[in-house]
Amino acid sequence: MGYANGQASYVNGESTSNRKQQPLFSFGLITDVQYADIPDGRSFLGVPRYYRHSILVLQRAVKEWNNHQRHNFVINFGDIVDGYCPKDQSLKTVKKIVHEFENFKGPVYHLIGNHCLYNLPRSQLLPLLRIQSDKGHGYYDFSPMPEYRFVVLGGYDISAIGWPKDHPRTLEALKFLQAKNPNEDKNSPMGLVGLERRFLMFNGGVGEEQMKWLDRVLEESTRLKQKVVVCCHLPLHPGASSKEALLWNYDEVMNLIHRYNCVKLCIAGHDHKGGYSIDSHGVHHKVLEAALECPPGTDAFGYADVYDDRISLHGTDRMKSVDMYFNPKADL
Ligand SMILES: [Zn+2]
C-alpha cells in the first residue's frame, strides 16, 4: 500500500523527548464523522460503519479537547453527515453535528466533504459551517500565529456533486469524468489501472482559479517565512492513500507545492483507513483515520502539537500517532 517511507516514523504514545519542550501551539483534529440516525452498515468493500456511534466519538473528542485546555482551535476534515442520511433529515442532522462541534471552547475550522454535499447544497452548507469564502468556494486560509499558516483546499471545486446541475463546474467535472472513466457508474473504478483509479465521481479537483490563489498564498507565506500546513478532504499523495481516494489533480497541486519550501505537512480525510508517508521533497502526508469506522467504545480523534522543527500528532485508539520532523534541507 505504499507505506514504506513512513511506517517507521509511527510513534505509539507520547515520545519522551517531546515532554520537556512546550509546543508553539496545538490543535484538535477529527475526520469523517459521517453520522446518520440509521442502523450500522458496511462500505462498498465490506468495512463496518457505525453510523449512530460516530456522534459519541465526536462528543468524546470535544470533551478531551476541552479538558486539554490549551488547544487553540479544532479542524474537522469533512464528511460530517453520511450520504445515507434520509434527505428530509439532512438539515436537522448537519445542524446537530455542527452543534456538537460548537461545544468546543474555541474556533472550529470545517472542510467540506462529498458526504456533506450529498446532503446539502453549498449555499446552505457554507453558512452552517461558518466557511467564509467567495462564490461558494470551500477554500480559505488562516494564520494562528505569525510563524504558521494553514491552507484549506476545496477538493470539490471541480466536482459533479454539490454545484447546481447546469453550473460550469459541474459540466467541467462531468466532461472530465466522461474522458477519464469509461464506466456507466462513474463511482466505479472497474477497468481503471493504477493511479487512474482516482477518476471517480465521489472525488473532485482543484480548479484553475484556486490554483492561482494557492500560488499567491504560498508565495506570500514564503516571503513571510511561514511554515504551511495544507488541509484537504481528499488526500494529495498516493503513498499515504488508496488510489481510489486521491484528489483528481493531486499531481498538479503537489507540483505547485513543491515549487516552494514552505509546506511541511498535508493532512486529509476521506480514505477511512488512514495512512502516512513522506514524499520525495520531504513533505509529510497524513491521512486521518475515520471516526465512522470506530467499533462502539473506541475512538479516532487526536491533537497536534506544533513546534518549530516538527508537528507531533497524538491520536486516540484508531488514530495513529506520528512525530513529523521537517526536512532541514528545505529551509536552506
Ligand atoms: Zn469523503
User: Strand count, sense and closure of the main sheet?
Assistant: 6 strands, mixed
How far the N terminus sits from the C terminus, by CA atoms, comes to 32 Å
Second rung of CATH, namely the architecture: 4-Layer Sandwich
The structural domain count equals: 1
The CATH first-level class comes to: Alpha Beta
CATH topology title: Purple Acid Phosphatase, chain A, domain 2
Bound molecules: zinc ion
Helix content: 10-25%
Class inferred from helices and paired strands: alpha/beta
What kind of assembly state do the chains in view correspond to? Answer: single chain
Count of separate DSSP helical elements: 7
Number of strands: 14
Helix and strand run: EEEHEHEHHEEHHEHEEEEEE
Shape descriptor reads: globular
Rg of Cα set: 19 Å
Question: Order of strands across the biggest sheet?
Answer: 5-4-1-12-13-14
What percent strand? 15-25%
- Residue runs with pLDDT of under 50 for 5 or more positions: 1-14
The CATH homology group name: Metallo-dependent phosphatases
Average pLDDT taken over every residue: 92
